Prior knowledge:
alpha/beta, 180 residues, single chain
Amino acid sequence: xxxxxxxxxxxxxxxxxxxxxxxxxxxxxxxxxxxxxxxxxxxxxxxxxxxxxxxxxxxxxxxxxxxxxxxxxxxxxxxxxxxxxxxxxxxxxxxxxxxxxxxxxxxxxxxxxxxxxxxxxxxxxxxxxxxxxxxxxxxxxxxxxxxxxxxxxxxxxxxxxxxxxxxxxxxxxxxxxxxx
Length: 180
């Protein structure tokens, strides 16, 4: 995925990068190693000790921001904008996936990578399916209690088109899982 970005957008030293909901920060650290102008990780869980240790080990300067995603405003307060934005396995846990997609679209200036759990519906269906309630986030209340959500490929594609993305690519899962 990193190669896709650099192959298509050019010199990483001219890019800014953000990962929304990045867990321990693999992508921001990797982009920082490539020399991007700015590499930021947003997450609601405070992984700062791990993140700072990895920055020290890798001699990188990726920034960690322990700021939760806020569904009531559809994003992260004061997040700013970045050339490239990743959101890996976040959409699946949000009750309002379209608000999150809108936030990602407003945050990404050049490219957006969204890893989403999609339905098996036809590509022209506009469907959101909720699979479980409070399975992972047992203390969350309605509206944010639906923690496994699937969006139809057609709704995801149409949402990206309406946000102005002109090149939309569907990446197939690798047989061995996500790339190392």
